[in-house]
Design goal:
single chain, 209 residues, mainly beta, Elongation Factor Tu (Ef-tu), domain 3, 6-stranded antiparallel beta barrel, 3 helices
Length: 209
């Protein structure tokens, strides 16, 4: 379990093909605090550390993770958001993040407002029931608040600290991002579906604040 509060930004050193997947080598200052078998969220994807030495962490990525996340598209040198799991006695500063990506979204727009930035991110329509106004969503492992909501997109306001201390500082329009919806919302929607309830539909592209 994670919180969506990025501890460090690492750099992808190598993505080496393996049988059915690949192995990531990530340069990070966290390497000295990680051991084989530890979990590590990489851009919001929970991975298992297989080696940690000399300022690098190694982790394997399987076929299913390649299909449902952005890890298969990351170029060498890409900045990646890193977070270790939440300790049982730790503070929950963001929201509960499992590291299980629900879908890949796309950055549609980045616009500045004073020292802050707005991001508009589109997502597959099947995610719509799980995203709510003023609710939480993890974007590449970053816990963010939904400030504007449409049927297939969200508006997010990014504070200067987050821009400076996560991979969002390098984000560009059309970039792919990993999305994970709030875990509590998933259970609520599932319960509603089993009860036979339906959901209100709004037009694609429409964002309300």
């Amino acid at each position: 379990m994670f919180t969506g509060l990025v501890e460090s930004v690492g750099a992808l050193v190598e993505r080496k093909p393996t049988a059915g997947g690949f192995r990531l080598r990530i340069a990070t200052a966290l390497s000295g605090e990680l051991s084989p078998g530890d979990s590590l969220a990489v851009n919001g994807v929970c991975l298992t550390v297989i080696l940690s030495e000399q300022g690098e962490v190694h982790a394997d990525v399987g076929p299913e993770t390649i299909r449902v996340t952005t890890l298969g598209w990351l170029p060498q040198g890409a900045a990646v958001n890193l977070e270790r799991p939440l300790r049982a006695d730790g503070r929950l500063g963001g929201h509960f993040v499992q590291g299980h990506v629900d879908a890949v979204g796309h950055i549609e727009e980045i616009r500045a407002e004073s020292d802050f930035h707005w991001l508009t991110i589109s997502f597959p329509r099947q995610l719509a029931p799980y995203v709510i106004q003023k609710g939480s969503i993890a974007v590449d492992g970053i816990s963010l608040t939904v400030a504007g909501l449409g049927a297939d997109r969200v508006d997010l306001m990014i504070v200067p600290f987050t821009m400076a201390h996560t991979s969002l500082g390098r984000a560009q329009v059309h970039d792919r991002v990993n999305l994970e919806c709030d875990m509590v919302g998933k259970y609520v929607v599932r319960a509603a579906e089993l009860a036979g309830l339906t959901f209100t539909v709004v037009q694609p592209g429409e964002v309300t604040h």
